[in-house]
Specification:
The protein has 383 residues and is an alpha/beta fold. It is built from 11 helices and 9 strands. A 7-stranded mixed sheet has the order 3-2-1-4-5-7-6, covered by helices on one side. A two-stranded parallel ribbon has the order 8-9.
Length: 383
């Protein structure tokens, strides 16, 4: 079977990635770290790691709308100057396409293979779903590129599908026969100041054998606030927005048109209650949002019900729950935007994780905190 196409027959990242040997890297603290993104989607990991000071030298995704988003926002912030977003199928992608110099290496590989195959919101087919098999393609790229570190993100449902055997298998395989020390941690992102409940697992590999301890929660509910700040809420995420529509000054802030019957149903919902027809929830303004989801492969994808208006939230409002800044514009309309938003790692959480990795794998002595990253990402609604 021909695994790779001729490199000249498909796109390449524009810049050749130039990094130094591992021996030299160990002596250079607080330098710029180089990253490559796979399954980059709408840019949650890319943006978060960029805000933490990493240089995303190349990103790749099979979705052209996502890649256009990554390039569309390049240069809007000094730390986000995207070299290239490559539209490519990972099954026919290798280091040559990504312009990686395997001899010199890269610092970190980022990626979250499609999670619908493992999600409790999907049909949980696991490796019976073609998307689930892309896990092994990500593993192949790690083996080929041999980065100093990697981040593999997925839904928490990965830990229980097939009775937990798949999780154990992936954890074992990611070590590449002992070449990488792999730390696996499950995080509820609301516990870290994200205005959304979102349960995810992160595998972090270190070629130099560093174990990465779990990050400690900083936020919690009103019933248990000892040493913690209060959860960030849906109403905070919705601050300073006008009503959605073509006249709005905010990008991607156009919502669905509802019938009078649906409007009345949404009006009658209590905070936190699920609509029996659309199966989406009315947001509680005093709690984090429910998980922002993608919807079905058949063009679905809906926001939750706005807490104060009898309508579904717009893609921009969903992006707020995901901690995307207002300056980050998504390419496309309708389901193209919803899928980018729903599949993403919240950029603020990604930035916190990136700083944590800088300390425990790359030896940085000083890292940015939550408030500093909010400022850096320009998340006015969370200040």
């Amino acid at each position: 079977m021909k695994l790779f196409e001729d490199p000249m027959s498909m796109g390449h990242c524009a810049e050749k990635i130039s990094t130094r040997s591992l021996g030299e890297l160990k002596t250079k603290k607080n330098r710029t770290l180089t990253a490559i993104g796979l399954f980059s989607g709408g840019g949650g990991l890319d943006l978060g790691f960029s805000a933490a000071g990493y240089k995303i030298a190349c990103s790749s995704d099979i979705d052209s709308y996502s890649c256009k988003t990554l390039e569309l926002n390049s240069g809007k912030k000094s730390y986000y100057k995207h070299a290239k977003a490559l539209v490519a199928d990972i099954r026919t992608t290798d280091a040559t396409h990504l312009n990686v110099d395997v001899e010199k290496g890269i610092d970190i590989l980022l990626g979250g293979p499609p999670c619908q195959a493992f999600s409790i919101f999907g049909q949980r087919k696991g490796l019976g779903d073609p998307r689930g098999n892309l896990v092994w393609e990500y593993l192949r790229i790690i083996r080929e590129i041999q980065p100093r570190a990697f981040v593999f993100e997925n839904v928490a449902g990965l830990t229980s599908i097939h009775g937990g055997t798949l999780y154990k298998q992936i954890l074992e395989e990611l070590s590449l026969g002992g070449q990488y020390k792999v730390s696996a941690h499950r995080y509820q992102v609301a516990d870290f100041g994200i205005p959304q409940f979102r349960d995810r697992i992160f595998f972090i590999g270190s070629k130099e054998g560093f174990e990465v301890p779990p990050m400690q929660p900083t936020h919690g509910g009103t019933e248990d606030l000892v040493g913690l700040k209060r959860y960030r809420t849906a109403s905070e995420a919705l601050r300073f927005l006008d009503e959605p529509g073509s006249e709005s000054k905010f990008s991607n802030h156009i919502g669905r048109t509802h019938s009078d019957r649906i409007i009345q149903r949404y009006e009658d919902l209590a905070f936190g209650e699920r609509d029996p027809k659309t199966r989406i929830n009315k947001l509680n303004p005093d709690r984090p949002s429910f998980t922002i989801i993608v919807g079905s492969d058949n063009g679905g994808g809906k926001g939750h019900v706005h807490p104060f208006s009898p309508r579904e939230v717009s893609p921009r409002e969903s992006a707020r729950m995901q901690t995307f800044p207002d300056w980050w514009k998504f390419h496309g309309t309708g389901r193209h935007v919803i899928r980018q938003v729903g599949n993403a790692v919240p950029p603020l959480f990604a930035a916190l994780l990136a700083e944590h990795i800088k300390k425990h794998i790359f030896g940085f002595k000083t890292i940015r905190n939550y408030e500093q990253l909010i400022e850096r990402l320009d998340l006015e609604y969370l200040k």
